[in-house]
Design a protein that fits this description.
This protein is of the alpha/beta class. The chain has 9 helices and 7 strands; from the N terminus they run E-H-E-H-E-H-E-H-H-E-H-E-H-H-E-H. The chain has one domain (9-238): NAD(P)-binding Rossmann-like Domain (Rossmann fold), CATH 3.40.50. Helix content is 47%, strand content 13%. The longest helix has 21 residues, at 148-168. Pfam families: adh_short (PF00106).
């Protein structure tokens, strides 16, 4: 299924900076009617509000808090495109002393956060024949040793995204799983990556993939190398109906 951004009402978690901000700006450039900016700090979207006026609406939201996301969904019954961009990532190897704490924290935001968003917005997206976009990563299909717990959390979120595709697509909801490589953001710098892709590459890729009705998006140069290697498995296993 495909969906155009033009004249749609969208919601972006973590919209105040990085990839989330770029997605917001791309959606508005492509004719979105309104974008809800779902952020923990409601003072952090002032620049977007000054630039876009009443085309953006800031709402407080924390994907690690179930009540917060349920309230967010109640406030936005007109939303058709939900982008779950908010996530965390920090270096931690599999045998580091704080590995359990690191994995627990990153699962709570990156995987359980997706479930909080999906369960809270499923009925709205079904009613509005909308789309759910999940920001995953190339780390969801390969464990990077110095980012082991982040990779594990993104592998979990990718698996859940596949589950959402199976359950929501038959109800008219488009699901898009986005798998960037290193991106030029604060998170990317903290993870030790240099020369990451520009955030606009990911944002524009989302617009194009939604219109094409794709399930996977590997938007940047590094990600496309993963796509080339992964495409056969994806077609024959991930996207295949194995119940036949």
């Amino acid at each position: 299924m495909s969906i155009s951004i033009k004249n749609q009402v969208a919601l972006v978690t973590g919209a105040n900076r990085g990839i989330g901000k770029a997605i917001t700006e791309s959606f508005l450039k492509h004719g979105a009617k309104k974008v809800y900016l779902a952020v923990r700090d409601t003072t952090s979207t002032q620049e977007l509000e000054e630039t876009y006026g009443d085309r953006v609406v800031t709402l407080e939201a924390d994907v690690s808090n179930t009540v917060s996301i349920q309230k967010l969904a109640e406030q936005t019954p007109d939303v058709a495109i939900v982008v779950n961009n908010a996530g965390i990532g920090s270096p931690c190897a599999t045998l580091d002393e704080d590995v359990l704490e690191s994995l627990t924290k990153q699962l709570d935001v990156n995987a359980f956060g997706l479930l909080r968003v999906a369960t809270s917005f499923a009925k709205t997206l079904e009613k509005n024949k909308g789309a759910l976009v999940q920001l995953n990563s190339v780390a969801s299909i390969k464990n990077f040793p110095h980012l082991s717990t982040y990779s594990a959390s993104k592998a979990a979120s990718y698996s859940l995204t596949q589950g959402l595709r199976a359950e929501l697509c038959p109800k008219g909801v488009t699901i898009l799983s986005v798998h960037p490589g290193p991106v030029d953001t604060e998170m990317g710098a903290a993870a030790g990556f240099e020369d990451g892709a520009d955030t606009s590459v990911i944002a524009e890729g989302i617009v194009t993939s939604l219109e094409a009705g794709d399930f996977h998006l590997f938007p940047d140069e590094m990600a496309k190398q993963f796509e080339d290697a992964y495409s056969n498995f994806s077609e024959k296993i991930v996207l295949a109906d194995l119940s036949e």
